[in-house]
Specification:
The protein has about 375 residues and is α+β, with helices and mostly antiparallel strands. It has eleven helices and ten strands.
Amino acid sequence: MDFDLTEDQQLLTQALERLLADHYDFEQRKSYAASAPGFSREQWLRYAEMGLLGLPFAEADGGLGGGPIETMLVMETFGRSLVLEPFLATVLLGGGLLQECAGAGLRTALIPRIIAGERLLAFAHAEMQSRYDLNDVATRARRDGDHWIIDGHKRHVLHGDCADQLLVSARVAGERRERDGIGLFLIDAGSAGLERRGYRLQDRTHAASLELKGVAVPAEAALCVGSALPAIERVVDRALAALCAEAVGAMSRAGEITVEYLKVRKQFGALLGSFQALQHRAVDMLVFTEQARSMAMYAAMMCQDTDAGERSRAVSAAKVQIGKSGKFVGENSVQLHGGIGVTEECQVGHYYRRLTMIELLFGDRHFHLSALARAGGLIGAEA
């Protein structure tokens, strides 16, 4: 199999690397994180000017028609710079659900605004009792004339505090854990009955908890009513593959920073890099990173129009390896820096925080290892 990048893919990566080199050094990132939204609105518009926000959207909707491989390249580059902007929440999750479920009219109204950087979306699905199970939805929606009325709670809504609109899952029929009966509803952030509580996560990104009390949603803003779960699973699997790529970028850069430190820091009258035991640790970090890279590439390729079972198994396997590798690389990056590794002034601590957060998003490695075991491993039980 040919793993070489096409010329367009190389140009995309190089252009994004130049942009981040100019506008996303460590000090700039800290200033973005300290701002009210927790990211740079100006940088978001720069992504729009580059066409990044239209990358995964179909050309018919005004996008570039990129696939999971292009998304993987962007997310890996984002991971190297610990990008804070809501690309995952708005473009991959929110935009992905619009592509899967919205009619032509709604796509025409919203997707060009997303591509232009004028509209932020968030996906509100997780609930207190659901843990990582996508089919566990207790929030309810009932039809009332030409509106749907929604009641319930949502938690850990990525960038839900700054989103202009929210894609909220709610059950229209069936019991709490049934696969059928789930719908998606596009809700304006200022809707009556909707309360948002924003907070900052350990990696300095933002999220929100939502309380919905009799929120009225027009019938035309209801998507995939009763049959939304397969679309949600497809979009979340693609988002997981993208997160795996981001983690690879973060691991790569954390390893590079650590090796650079070992080459200049002296202890006991000698450079740390001269100690063979520490050289072995650095090599092990590289091995774990490359194992993660291979699995991230595998997950991205398996998100290209493959069978749902094969796709889910590949993504779960990748998430397991990403969790293992991220923990090893993050811990060793901090430990090899010594006490300074856990300070705000040291970059590697921030990389470890992001890797820890990626491990927890949409299922940690223990959850995905169990899911993979139930499915019969990568080959599958049916084989």
